[in-house]
């Protein structure tokens, strides 16, 4: 027994250290949400064929969503779209490729399960060029929507939003990292349920000790591509190598997560991850691997650098442009940031009016986690489904520039007072 004592002592010490190091602290919310993994219904990957019409449709690509395709009549097919599981938001996502043996005009009638209706205006990709379908080719009867397309032997992609799969996102952030290697370190912080990388961009200039941290996240919800485009513009502005951006990166540390739910994105999910869960309801107990690993990475970064998290921005999409904010501001890390930022946006974007919806988070969403977990400013940065790309880029650029300016002024005031 004496020979085993040192081994047992070492084992006990190891276990105590392990318990002390694993996991970030949980954050309590007024309205808990069960985020334990739930079954999903995977779509069958296949090419559907209507032989007598010589018309085809396929979901055999990342980001596709097509659950059935059947002849309705000689000029129309029914497109069946179902969610990954339920309950789920009424935001049906779809994406498929279609073609025919001979050139023809053909109609596609969307059909969803009872209780769901069409949300997204169709985007069309022909030969690599995306465009919004002409309204003259969209026909609505109550909640049923039919679109008309000219199809031939070359496949046409029809999608709720421009497809930005995990591969597309990886190409973008890899290129961004390579162009800004002085400031950006690309890290893989873990794996999803399906084994996909969860990437993080660690952005700063020089030492990180005691530098306040800003967290940027996007694509918690797979179809919300316009929010991702704003995230791109925002981050590219921070890395623009301007005098402002250089000064900012001297003083602040950015951690950016460019794709929070790669499984859901590539599976063509309406909203959830491969665990059948809305990840933006898991910022309390961290049951899902994506949120658990992101939170652990942020927590370790804060501890390692003896730093404070002061601002978190979560980029999403909805029916219109809106910023969801927390009402609680006094006593937070940046009590005047929201009002100063929104004033600056209206002053620096022509004909722009900030649409703010303020309310302290009751469910476990990211902006509440920033507030309750770190006493930081948390904002859900929403871009409209149909906001033009040019406008998205303008808003993203201006909001990044004004954020940097305000935070640098805040830092300067703290140093001089």
Keywords:
single chain, 417 residues, Immunoglobulin-like, Aminopeptidase, 2 domains, eight-stranded mixed β-sheet, disordered N terminus
Topology readout:
Layout lengths: L4 H17 L25 E4 L4 E4 L9 E6 L2 E5 L14 E6 L3 E8 L11 E4 L2 E4 L5 E4 L2 E8 L4 E4 L6 H14 L4 E8 L5 E7 L8 E7 L6 H14 L4 H9 E6 L4 H6 L21 H16 L4 E10 L3 E4 L11 H12 L7 E3 L7 H9 L2 E8 L4 H28 L1
Parallel strand pairs: 4-6, 14-15, 14-16, 16-19, 17-18
Antiparallel strand pairs: 1-2, 2-5, 3-4, 5-11, 6-10, 7-8, 7-11, 9-10, 12-13, 13-15, 17-19
Helix pairs in contact: 3-9, 4-9, 7-9
Report on this model:
By secondary structure, the chain is of the alpha+beta class. It folds into 2 domains: 47-159, Immunoglobulin-like; 166-416, 3-Layer(aba) Sandwich (Aminopeptidase), CATH 3.40.630.10. Helices cover 30% and strands 26% of the residues. The protein contains 9 helices and 19 strands. It has helices at residues 5-21, 166-179, 225-238, 243-251, 262-267, 289-304, 337-348, 366-374, 389-416; strands at 47-50, 55-58, 68-73, 76-80, 95-100, 104-111, 123-126, 129-132, 138-141, 144-151, 156-159, 184-191, 197-203, 212-218, 252-257, 309-318, 322-325, 356-358, 377-384. An 8-stranded mixed beta sheet has the order 12-13-15-14-16-19-17-18, sandwiched between helices. A 6-stranded antiparallel beta sheet has the order 1-2-5-11-7-8, with no helix packed on it. The chain has a 5-stranded mixed beta sheet with strand order 3-4-6-10-9, with no helix packed on it. Strand 17 (322-325), helix 7 and strand 18 (356-358) form a beta-alpha-beta unit. It starts with a helix and ends with a helix. 41% of the residues are buried. The model is unreliable at 1-5 and 9-22 (pLDDT under 50).
